[in-house]
Amino acid sequence: MKRKDIVPTQIERQMRDEDFIVSKTDTKGIITYGNPIFIEFSGYSEAELIGTQHNIIRHPDMPRAAFKLAWDTIQAGQEFFAYVKNMSKDGSYYWVFAHITPDFDQSGRIIGYTSVRRCPKRSAIEALTPVYRQMLEAEQAAGARDAIAAGTKVLVDLLNLKDMSYEALVFAL
Fold this sequence. Notes:
With 173 residues, the protein is of the alpha+beta class. It has six helices and five strands; from the N terminus they run E-E-H-H-H-E-E-E-H-H-H.
C-alpha cells in the first residue's frame, strides 16, 4: 500500500553506473523479491517491501498513463522499457531505466514479473520530464475517470508527431 504521509522532496539520489535494481512481483504487482540495491534506493526495509504493492515507490510526478502502458504491455506477455521517476521512503527521488519482463511457468502462463533497473541517461531524463509533465497535467485536467485516456492522448500525439513507436522513442533517447 502506498504511503500517503510521504512528502516528495527535491532531493535526487543518483544511481551509480554499476547499480542494478532488481525486484520481482506476482501478477498483481505485489513485491516478492527485492535485491539490496532496491532496498537501498527505496529506503524501505526488506520486510516493509515484501508483500506490498510495487507502487509503494511511485512518484506523484509520474503519469498514470505511463503505468497503464507498462501493465498492458507486460500482461500481453511482452517486455517493456521505460524511464521512471521513483520516490524513496524519505521523499527523495531517483530516476531509473527500467526493463520489465513477464515470468512464465512451464505451460506458458504469466506467473509474475521481473524488473531490472539501471542508471538512466541524463539526456533521456531531460527529454522525458516535460512529456511526463504534460501527460500529468492532462490527467489532472481530465479528472480521475478520464485521466488515463487524457495522459495517453498526450503520449500518442507525441509519438504520431515523431512518427515512431513508444519503444523506438525510448531507445532513441
